[in-house]
Amino acid sequence: MAWLWFGTGYTFTEKELLVKSEPFRLRIPLAKITKACRTRSLLSAPALSLDRLEILYSNNQVVLVSPADRQAFTGELKSRCPGADIQQT
Fold it and tell me: How many angstroms separate the CA atoms of 44 and 46, rounded?
């Protein structure tokens, strides 16, 4: 269980958002992100909390994340994806 807790994280690179939730990894091109908004969805996701962000990308694909500092994360996402609808929380 600890490997799941410590193995979950989100990293920005120059062109991608990397979502890691051991043993899974997802690479989302920043240019493909269209929207991010707050959600309390119960769907299974690489998120350690129910206070989540829903990120829509590439033809309506969805990933749910729960960054520790949601405001900093959405601010970074907004600056890296200026054409996307990023709702500050």
Answer: 7
Q: What is the chain's alpha carbon radius of gyration, rounded to the nearest angstrom? A: 12
Contact 60, 41 (CB under 8 A): no
pLDDT digits (tens, 9 = 90+) for 17-67: 999 986 789 999 999 999 999 988 776 666 667 788 999 999 889 999 989
pTM: 0.83
Query: Closest Cα partner for 17 from 79, 60, 59, 77?
Result: 77
Rounded to whole angstroms, the Cα distance separating 4 from 24 reads 10
Q: DSSP assignment, residue 23?
A: T
CB 86, CB 74: distance < 8 Å = yes
